[in-house]
Design a protein that fits this description.
It contains nine helices and 52 strands. The two termini are about 45 Å apart. Helix 5 packs parallel to helix 6. By secondary structure, the protein is mainly beta. The protein is globular, with a radius of gyration of 27 Å. The protein has a nine-stranded mixed β-sheet.
Length: about 800
């Protein structure tokens, strides 16, 4: 059937599920309210600007400046990064000023001076109007115990809380008269409390400007709509105009990073036009598990990037089973000015039909192009390339205005995007979808290991695992997992291994094929055994069945799943111009669906399109604009002009790169990017080549690229490392720093991993130093990269690292590549 996805598993025994979209039933403008995170940012630069800006985050929740609850994530400190990347508002979790969890209850008299200090700091900030004060966190459980069943005890506790709420409310307003205050912020929805709270707050004139509570259990996927409806009823009965709602903690560990789970949560929040921040179960600074390292997307990031791309109005979506845990759910939008409809869906395996009704002929004509892509689960720490396009199909709109897009072999943990655009003339190019198969570790032959069950509905704060199981305890000399696989053709295959490594250093396994000579696979550290990451390697396989063995090497690794994908050529992605972020007033031309199928974006003077371009590693890639006339591309502070179809050799950093395109007048179909990250023509300098001073010294290490790294750098103005680099040409370069550090401060939380960042001041020549933030690398022996744009003159340049007030990261080596190669 036209538009069918390639099969990825056995079809469901029953007929396809049906998810229906009604383009005539508007729910109001897209709010993008559900893309926030609690402690989503840890420092300025963690996550990176390129990872943060594309998500168009509307709200985040952070601790007050100097709060003792965690070592980083201070609201004012991260606000510059958040606001410069288009962020909306910051919730200040005021009780996070305390160190203990649950917060030490020292009485309201102890709390009030802390409230004063927090409000004075926020009120003095130039962006004070973009902060929201949350005076109490989970008062139903902490300090006030408002969830007790005994009515007399409840009323006593309630009255204490209400008096304290009133006191703190007035205290905030006395310092910041225009303050926005949110609450009561229960850990779960309580009708009894909210009925009483609304009556009290209205009577005493202390109503919050934003209503907050938490939805944290799997049951919220079933119950949230009833909670929301009940709350709005309570408001009406109390004579209160509808308040903005922020569900400022949502989802469990098993949901975070998983596109198929996230779409279930986001769809119900967006449908009701509420704001929501994903919970903070692990480490700060990764947007609740959706950014790998500082700048690398995982599958969850791409889902939120899709969500950020919805424009116009959301429209009614009817899933097969509304308000049901772990089922197919979705959300959809219609942008009449852009003549685009988008559907995001997921949460169920098997086959589905997406029935789009009332497709307006005045906007789309008699045919539409349906473009289908998949954002898969790649783990919390697993990199995910730009979502693969599975189908581009031209479909006829039925006489009743209906279009049906069939999806076959869906994966439960994946999310899918369908984009409908006018068909026009021509035929969209069929995407090249390589053969792929997945194999669960728990289904393989296991020696010296054990199968564990991870995140499930009954253990929702367990970590996500493919099939809810993985194989651990592979810690004996004979431990191994034998995967029996079958490939259709002789050739090269990409092997993706979903794993965990909590050993404290890079760990290894020995990979062998059919009992042949093993090769070593090295696994970087992860937060813990079940905080899943992905290791990509390449294997050569003859057609037919094989046994792939992963046997214990150094230390211990847990295994979840392997994916085999046929390597059909050089990696290549076409980024559709009509789906890029825009500014100005570009127009959309759908007269032809040739190529990527979604038509062309017409840029004129003052218009701009920004593409989010993924790179698997730091290096050079071939970038080709598919345009009708010359365009200008700005990347890492460098601007280059390209003729239509002219290949450019551009340097991309590992992860996401924001490429901005402008033009005098041109129609752009796509920005095509190919390659694997060539390092030909780059400059590389080992730590041993640097001139060290003031206590900085070379330290031997088997894990460093040349056997040593620069340690004890910083913590004094005299402690520096100076590299002399020889630039072949003047211009803008990417300085890629290979670094490691594992600073932590354990605050005694049962579930938060309080990692810390380090900074270094980087000085090029006689220029001003630039402070750069380096995220924790999970161990002292794992080297990550961070790319920093710098300007070099032709010939000799001094690049100096230091930190006068704190330790800088350990530095293994540096590389430099000119942005335009």
């Amino acid at each position: 059937m036209a538009g069918t996805l390639p099969a990825a598993g056995p079809a469901a025994a029953a007929g396809p599920q049906r998810l229906t979209v009604d383009l005539a039933a508007s729910e109001g403008p897209v709010t993008l309210g559900a893309n926030g995170a609690l402690y989503g940012l840890s420092d300025d630069g963690v996550p990176s600007d390129a990872a943060l800006e594309p998500l168009k985050i509307t709200s985040i929740s952070q601790k007050p400046e100097g709060g003792a609850q965690h070592p980083n994530g201070d609201a004012l400190t991260i606000s510059q990064s958040f606001f410069r990347n288009g962020g909306g508002e910051i919730n200040v979790m005021m009780q996070d000023i305390y160190a203990k969890w649950p917060y030490e209850d020292l009485g309201i008299d102890d709390y009030l001076p802390k409230v004063d200090k927090i409000v004075e700091q926020v009120a003095a900030d130039p962006n004070s109007d973009r902060f929201v004060y949350i005076p109490f966190n989970e008062p139903d459980q902490i300090w006030y115990h408002l969830g007790v069943s005994d009515q007399a005890t409840y009323e006593k506790n309630r009255d204490r809380f209400f008096q304290d709420w009133k006191t703190v409310y007035h205290r905030i307003r006395a310092i910041d008269p225009d303050a926005r205050i949110a609450g009561p912020n229960e850990a779960a929805y309580h009708t009894r409390l909210l009925r009483d709270f609304l009556a009290f707050a209205k009577r005493e004139n202390v109503l919050p400007q934003i209503m907050t509570w938490h939805e944290l259990g799997p049951g919220s996927l079933r119950d949230f709509q009833a909670h929301y409806d009940n709350y709005r009823t309570l408001e009406r009965k109390a004579g209160i105009a509808p308040l903005k709602i922020n569900i400022d903690e949502y989802a469990n560990r098993r949901d975070l990073s998983v596109p198929g789970q996230l779409v279930q949560w986001v769809s119900m929040f967006e449908r009701n036009k509420v704001y929501a921040n994903a919970a903070y179960w692990d480490a700060a600074g990764n947007l609740s598990g959706h950014v790998v390292r500082s700048n690398i997307p995982n599958g969850g990031w791409w889902f939120f990037r899709w969500y950020a791309g919805l424009t116009g109005d959301t429209v009614k979506v009817t899933p097969p089973q509304p308000h049901t845990v772990d089922t197919l759910q979705g959300l959809a939008s219609l942008d009449r000015s852009r003549r685009q409809a988008q559907v995001l869906l997921g949460g169920s395996a098997g086959d589905s039909d997406v029935v789009v009704r009332k497709v307006p002929r005045s906007l789309f004509g008699r045919t539409v192009t349906a473009t289908v892509a998949e954002a898969a689960w790649s783990g919390y720490e697993g990199q995910h390339a730009a979502p693969r396009v599975l189908a581009r199909t031209k479909l006829t709109v039925a006489s009743d205005g209906t279009v049906t897009v069939p999806l076959r072999g869906m994966h439960k943990m994946s999310a899918y995007r369908i984009v409908l655009t006018p068909g026009g003339s021509g035929t969209p190019a069929a995407p090249a979808v390589p053969w792929s198969a997945s194999y669960e570790a728990e289904d393989a032959a296991i020696t010296g290991g054990r199968v564990y069950t991870q995140g499930t509905v009954s253990n929702a704060n367990g970590y996500a695992a493919s099939g809810t199981k993985d194989v651990g305890s592979l810690n004996t000399p004979s431990s191994k997992v034998d995967f029996t696989v079958t490939v259709p053709e002789t050739g090269t295959y990409d092997l993706a291994i979903l794993y965990g490594n909590q050993s404290g250093a890079p760990a290894t396994q020995r990979l062998s094929i059919d009992g042949g000579e093993p090769v070593t696979v090295t696994y970087p550290s992860t937060e813990n055994w079940t905080y899943r990451a992905k290791r990509d390697v390449t294997v050569r396989l003859p057609a037919g069945p094989h046994v792939l063995t992963l046997a214990k090497g150094d230390a211990e690794v847990t295994l979840d799943r392997i994916d085999l994908t046929a390597r059909t050529g050089e990696p290549s992605t076409s980024y559709e111009a009509t789906l890029a972020d825009i500014s100005g007033r570009p127009s959309y031309d759908y007269s032809s669906s040739t190529g990527v199928g979604t038509g062309a974006l017409v840029l004129r003077g003052g218009d701009k399109a920004v593409f989010d371009v993924y790179a698997p590693r730091d290096g050079y890639y071939t970038v080709v604009p598919r345009a009708s006339a010359a365009v200008r591309i700005a990347l890492h502070g460098e601007t280059v002009t390209a003729a239509p179809g002219r290949p450019l050799r551009l340097y991309l950093v590992a992860g996401n790169n924001r490429a901005a395109m402008t033009a005098g007048h041109t129609a752009v179909r796509s920005l095509d990017v190919s390659g694997g990250g060539s390092t030909a023509g780059t400059l590389s300098y080992e730590g041993a080549t640097a001139t060290l001073a003031g206590g900085a010294r070379l330290v031997e290490s088997a894990y460093a690229s040349a056997g040593s790294y620069i340690g004890r750098l910083g913590n004094s103005a005299d402690s520096t490392a100076e590299f002399t680099v020889d630039a072949p040409r003047s211009g803008r370069y990417l300085l890629v720093v290979h670094y490691a550090h594992n600073d932590r401060r354990d605050n005694g939380h049962a579930y938060n991993t309080d990692i810390m960042s380090r900074t270094a001041d980087i000085t090029v020549g006689s220029g001003a130093p630039r402070k750069v933030t380096f995220k924790n690398t999970w161990s002292w022996d794992d080297y990550w990269t961070l790319g920093v744009p710098v300007d070099l003159k032709k010939g000799s340049n001094k690049v100096t690292f230091g930190n006068a007030t704190a330790w800088a990261p350990d530095i293994d080596r540096i590389e430099l590549g000119r942005v335009v190669g």
